[in-house]
Amino acid sequence: MHSPMEQFEIKRLLHLNLFGIDASFTNSSTWMIIAVILATAVFVWGMRQRALVPGKLQSVAELGYEFIAGMVRDNVGDGGKKYFPFILTLFIFILFCNVLGMVPYSFTPTSHIVVTFAMAAFVFVGVTLIGFARHGVHFLSLFVPKGVPFALLLLLVPIEIISYFIRPFSLSIRLFANMLAGHTMLKVFGGFVVMLGIIGGWAPLAFIVVFTGLELLIAFLQAYVFAILTCLYLNDAIHLHH
Amino acid sequence: MSNHDPEGARRGVEEMEAKLKAARAANPKPSHNEAPSNVMSQRQTGVAYRVLVDMIAGLLVGGFLGYWLDRWLGWAPYSLVTGLVLGFVAGANNAWRAIRAYSKDAAVTGSGGDDGNRRLP
After folding, report:
1. Residues B60, A173, A116, A73, CA torsion sign
2. In this predicted structure, what is the pLDDT of residue B40?
3. What pLDDT band is residue A24 in, cutting at 50, 70 and 90?
4. To the nearest whole angstrom, how far is the Cα of A193 from the nearest Cα of chain B?
5. Residue A170 CB burial class (10 angstroms; 0-12, 13-18, ≥19)
6. Residues of A in contact with B48 (CB under 8 A)
7. Are B12 and A162 within 8 A, CB to CB?
8. Are the beta carbons of A225 and B9 separated by less than 8 Å?
9. Rounded Cα–Cα distance for residues A119 and A117 (Å)
10. For a Cys-Cys bond, which of A26, A149, B60, B75 suits B79, CB 3.0-4.6 Å?
11. Which one is predicted more confidently, B18 or A55?
C-alpha cells in the first residue's frame, strides 16, 4: 500500500547545480509551468476574438478578470489599480496550481510550504516596501494604535509588530495546510476503498466523490483568500489604517 | 460572430437581449434572499479559515521567536513563555480584526436582516 504522503514527494527530473545550490528541475516545477502555460492559454486564446458577445472561453477569462478587478476596487480603492496585474497573476496562478492538483497523477505545487511561503514572503516584503515608499517613516504609525495611553503602548506596540510579522506565516500556512490536508484525506479514503473491497468499499467511495467536490471549492476558496488578503495588506500599506 | 462586423455584432446583442428578456419573463427569479446569503456564506468560510490559521500561526511564530531567543541568549525558559503568550495575543488580535471587519460589512449589507448575533460591539 502506498503511503498517503507519497504524492507530495519531490522528484528531480533534470539535475541542475548552480554554484553549489541544488536548482534541479522537479515535478513541482513542471506542474507550475503547466499551470502558467494553461493560464496564459485561457487568457490569450480565450480573448483572441475580442467578441462583443463572449464565447465560452472568453466568458471564463472575462469572469476571472472582472472578479479580481472588483476585489481590488472594493478592498484597496484608489491607488490599487497599479497593483491589479500582480494580484490577478497571483490569483490565477494559485487557482490553476490548486485545480490542476485535483487531476489524477498530477502534483500540487501549492501543497509545499516552500512554494506558498515564497509567494507570501514576496507579498509581505513588497507590501512593506510600498508602505515605506509611500509614507516614509510615517508608515511605522501602523503599529501605534490611536487613542491609547502611553503605558499601554509599551504592551500594544510589540503585539502589533508581532501581528504584522505573523502575516506571511498565516498566509502561507493556510494555503499549504489546506492543500496538504485535503489531498492526504482523499488518499487515505482511497486506501479505505481498496481495503474494504467490493463489499464495504462503497461508503468511502461515496465519501470521496463528495469530498472531491469540496476540494474543488477549497481550491478556489484558498486562491480567493490569498488574493483578498493581499488586497487587504496592500490597503493597510496604502491608506495606513485598519 | 467576429469583430470585423460591428453592425452584425450589435444586431446579435439586440437579439440576445430580447431573448434574455423573454427567458427572464418566463422564469421569474427565485426568492430574493437566496443569492446574497450564499455569497455571504462563502465569505464566512473565508473568514473562518483566516481566524483558524491566524491563531495557530501566532502561536507558531511567537513560540519559534522565543525558542530562538532562548537558544541564542540562554534565557530558557522565560523568552519561550513570553513569546508564546505574545504570539497568542497577536494571533488573537489578527483574528479579532478579521471578525470585526467581517461583522461591520455584514451589518452594512444587512444580509441576515435583524439577525442580532452577527453584530459585534
Report:
1. negative
2. 60
3. confident
4. 29
5. buried
6. none
7. no
8. no
9. 5
10. B75
11. B18
3-state secondary structure of A195: helix
**Residue that is written with C-alpha cell 509614507 in the block:** A135
Please answer yes or no on whether A170 and B57 come within 8 Å at the CB atom: yes
**pLDDT tens per residue, range A151-176:** 888 888 888 888 899 999 999 999 99
The residue among A106, A113, A118, A87 whose CA lies nearest residue A223 is: A87
pLDDT of residue B117: 43
Choose the mutation target among A169, A228, A229 for the interface with B, i.e. most B CBs under 10 Å: A169
- Residues in chain B with CB shorter than 8 Å from the CB of A158 are 86
Interface of A with B (CB under 8 A): 49-53, 158-160, 162-163, 165-167, 169-170, 173-174, 177-178, 221-222, 224-225, 228-229, 232, 242
Set of cell numbers at residue A228: 483578498
The single-letter DSSP state of residue B30 is P
Confidence grade of residue B115 (pLDDT, cut at 50, 70, 90):
very low
pTM for this predicted structure:
0.81
- CB contact at 8 A, B106 and B119: yes
Separation in Å, CA of B115 to nearest CA in chain A: 25
Q: What is the percent of chain A where pLDDT is above 70?
A: 99
pLDDT at residue B77 tops 70 = yes
Of A158, A166, A173, the CB nearest to B94: A166
CA atoms within 13 A on the CB side of B12: 13
Interface predicted TM-score (ipTM) of this complex, two decimals: 0.70
